[in-house]
Description:
- By secondary structure, the chain is of the alpha+beta class.
- It has 2 helices and 4 strands; from the N terminus they run βββαβα.
- It starts with a strand and ends with a helix.
Amino acid sequence: MITIAIGDGTYGVRVSAGNGTPLLALHGFTGSGATWDALAAAMPTRRVIAPDLPGHGETDVGNSLTRHRVGRAIDD
């Protein structure tokens, strides 16, 4: 897991060791990037990038409701 500072928050992101074509994997509501650990293990040649979205896992974007909107995560 790495932590990336974006704007006024930080995102927890899992990045697998593969060096092939990157695959961005986004979890659903109440999930986290860990949702995709089995997928990353099953695809060892791909680089799977699985962030914890706002309000989940190791991502911290504060408590402002507007900060948790999908559009804001897309902007990040």
